[in-house]
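Subject: for your reference before the review

Hello V.,

The reviewers asked for a structural picture of the protein, and I figured it would be easier to keep everything in one thread rather than splitting it across files. Below is the amino acid sequence we used in the manuscript, unchanged from the supplementary table.
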Amino acid sequence: MMFVYRAAEALLSGGIIAYPTEGVFGLGCLPNDVAAVQRLLHLKQRDAAKGLILITANPAQLGGWASLVDGRSVPAPDPMHPVTWIVLPGPYVHPLVRGEHSGLAVRITTHPIAAAICDAVDSPIVSTSANLSGKPAARNRFVLRRQFAQHVDYIVPGDCGPVSGASEIRDLASGNVLRPR
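And here is what came back from the structure prediction:
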């Protein structure tokens, strides 16, 4: 999967990538690269107060990024029902990633390409839907390329997973659904 290494190279060089996830194409960068996060927010025309999601291949990659609530761990992911969990932010989290929220949104991805990218950079990556703020997210490569080919550093080949739309968001401490599927 040479394209995973190209995506990792783009990320490690401060770039933004577009890549498939469980339900929609995502735009991402490394969460510790403040300039890339700012560029991503500008590209999406997204209000920084809304915050961003981090995806990871496994819970170990969240070390320093997320503090688990009352010793609770993020539940194992379900490929047919992806859930993004709100957890306490760890010391690595820049305010631009969290936005105006006291919590941090994280998801253990079940998409093999997205997980391979996280593994290649040995880090969570920012994951926000590939769309301009308020517009529908891209679910196919044609729409993705038309909207973002000129604005991202690399488009990762591949297809979105079996789910249509964005993931559900739940609070880890309470279990409350903050955004239904």
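For the response letter, the relevant points are probably these. The mean pLDDT is 92. The radius of gyration is 15 Å.

Happy to draft the paragraph if you're swamped.

O.
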